[in-house]
């Protein structure tokens, strides 16, 4: 693999796609050109494929520029969306925000299976149903009752959350227990995959009144390294917590479900190590162990590619923490409630992402020392058992400026197939365990 030539002025092209990402990241990329380390490395970041008003260029014009870029200048890629005809060129980027087989983390059903590889204290009891009928079968088997008109809900220790595997934004979520499941699930679409997840009994409450979860942010690097950002958002339910009713506005904490409720606080920025000092080490462990569990099914060709993830973490009153969902490419758009505070968190976080994931490897490839930890709020949470392997991968890795070669593309395809095969075997093995719950 060739490395960039040192001591020669180097233009580095980057392409950002997706309206939110372009608006947030393009100014931050441009600001990198005034970075002293970047100037020392004689690198200039140049945007391609966007008009001045941040609209994407037509695909044919973009293709022409990308073809030139991948031949003569290294290409950095932050891909939210990708036109079909440009995918082969996107694959040739030197650094991408996309890992092979990332569906292991992103799919709710896959993530449910991945929890079989986590330590028991970090995994909520979770089942995967292939259809709405299977969800009902599970309920009947568990509670062995046909109907009930009891008004008061049973203890939350036997509540469950049913989620459509492909759902998002807080939609397609049902709270069920022995007294309400027939009414709640009577119109459940059948031809979908569902996750049945244990409800967190006695959740920690924000300011003593509202259920909430943390929207944390994590990076999974192609080398297997796991990073966690110290700052997060708190997202609360719309109404005060009440365990005697299953009103979704008291139990579901997604912003899209609750933001229209009067006096809802929106996304509340917090510095987790300072405001929740006891929880932060536990959240670190949750993400570190999750990445370690995913690595065997997400082998990479490039050690410098990465995934930027939104992590939905919930805690109970005893301070135990669980990762309930991973969102690849979380939104970067501020709400209308805490716009200034949210913008400050987003900009600071993404500036550090660009520094660590793009600037540092590019500068090092040109023989310029660049520290990826100075003034950084990104903590390395890689599990200790994996550190030696991660360091070996990173020490042997070099930026692949010849990724457009046929050999490199063929290698990527081989690794992708190997990942998919390993994951399919893992799912099948644990699927047999899950099926016992439905028969």
Structural class: alpha+beta
> What share of the residues lie within helices?
25-40%
Count the beta strands. 16
Radius of gyration over all CA atoms, rounded? 23 Å
| Count of discrete alpha- or pi-helical segments spanning 4 or more residues | 15
User: What is the CA-CA span between the terminal residues?
Assistant: 53 Å
Strand fraction: 15-25%
Mean pLDDT: 86
* Uncertain stretches: none
Report the principal-axis shape: globular
Major β-sheet profile: 8 strands, antiparallel
SSE diagram, text form:
Layout: E1 10-16, H1 19-31, H2 36-40, E2 43-47, H3 59-72, E3 75-78, H4 87-90, E4 95-96, H5 103-106, H6 108-114, E5 126-129, H7 132-143, E6 160-164, E7 173-176, H8 181-185, E8 194-198, E9 205-206, E10 210-221, E11 226-229, E12 231-236, H9 248-251, H10 255-258, E13 268-271, H11 272-275, H12 280-294, E14 306-315, E15 321-328, H13 339-365, E16 378-380, H14 384-396, H15 406-435
Commentary on this structure:
With 439 residues, this protein is of the alpha+beta class. The protein is built from 15 helices and 16 strands. It has helices spanning 19-31, 36-40, 59-72, 87-90, 103-106, 108-114, 132-143, 181-185, 248-251, 255-258, 272-275, 280-294, 339-365, 384-396, 406-435, and strands at 10-16, 43-47, 75-78, 95-96, 126-129, 160-164, 173-176, 194-198, 205-206, 210-221, 226-229, 231-236, 268-271, 306-315, 321-328, 378-380. A hairpin with a 4-residue loop joins strand 10 and strand 11 (226-229). The radius of gyration is 23 Å and the shape is globular. The N and C termini lie far apart (53 Å). The mean pLDDT is 86.
């Amino acid at each position: 693999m060739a490395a960039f030539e040192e001591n020669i002025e180097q233009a580095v092209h980057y392409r950002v796609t997706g309206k939110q990402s372009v608006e947030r990241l393009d100014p931050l990329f441009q600001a990198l050109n005034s970075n002293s380390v970047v100037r020392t490395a004689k690198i200039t970041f140049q945007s391609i494929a966007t008009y001045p008003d941040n609209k994407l260029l037509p695909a044919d014009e973009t293709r022409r520029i990308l073809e030139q870029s991948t031949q003569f200048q290294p290409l950095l890629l932050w891909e939210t969306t990708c036109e079909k005809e440009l995918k082969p060129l996107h694959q040739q980027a030197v650094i991408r925000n996309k890992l092979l087989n990332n569906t292991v983390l992103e799919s709710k059903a896959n993530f449910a299976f991945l929890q079989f590889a986590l330590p028991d204290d970090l995994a909520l009891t979770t089942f995967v149903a292939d259809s709405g009928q299977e969800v009902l079968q599970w309920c009947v088997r568990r509670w062995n009752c046909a109907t009930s008109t009891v008004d008061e809900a049973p203890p939350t220790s036997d509540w469950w959350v049913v989620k459509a595997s492909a759902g998002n934004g807080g939609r397609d979520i049902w709270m069920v227990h022995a007294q309400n499941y027939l009414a709640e699930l009577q119109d459940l679409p059948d031809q979908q995959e569902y996750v049945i997840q244990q409800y967190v009994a006695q959740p920690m409450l924000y300011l003593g009144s509202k259920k909430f979860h943390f929207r944390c942010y994590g990076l999974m690097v192609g080398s297997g390294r796991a990073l966690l950002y110290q700052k997060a958002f708190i997202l609360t339910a719309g109404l005060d917590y009440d365990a005697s009713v299953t009103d979704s506005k008291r139990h579901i904490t997604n912003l899209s479900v609750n933001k229209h409720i009067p006096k809802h606080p929106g996304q509340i920025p917090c510095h987790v190590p300072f405001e929740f000092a006891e929880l932060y080490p536990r959240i670190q462990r949750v993400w570190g162990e999750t990445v370690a569990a995913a690595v065997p099914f997400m082998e990479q060709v490039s050690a410098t590619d990465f995934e930027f993830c939104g992590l939905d973490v919930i805690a109970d009153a005893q301070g135990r923490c669980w990762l309930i969902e991973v969102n690849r490419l979380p939104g970067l758009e501020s709400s209308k409630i805490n716009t200034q505070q949210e913008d400050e968190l987003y900009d600071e976080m993404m500036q550090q992402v660009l520094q660590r994931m793009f600037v540092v490897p590019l500068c090092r490839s040109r023989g310029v020392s660049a520290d990826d930890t100075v003034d950084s709020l990104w903590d390395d949470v890689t599990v200790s058992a994996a550190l030696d392997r991660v360091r070996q991968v990173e020490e042997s890795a070099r930026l692949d400026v010849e990724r457009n070669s046929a050999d490199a593309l063929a290698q990527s395809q081989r690794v992708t197939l190997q990942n998919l095969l390993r994951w399919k075997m893992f799912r099948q093995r644990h699927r047999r365990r899950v099926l016992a719950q439905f028969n």
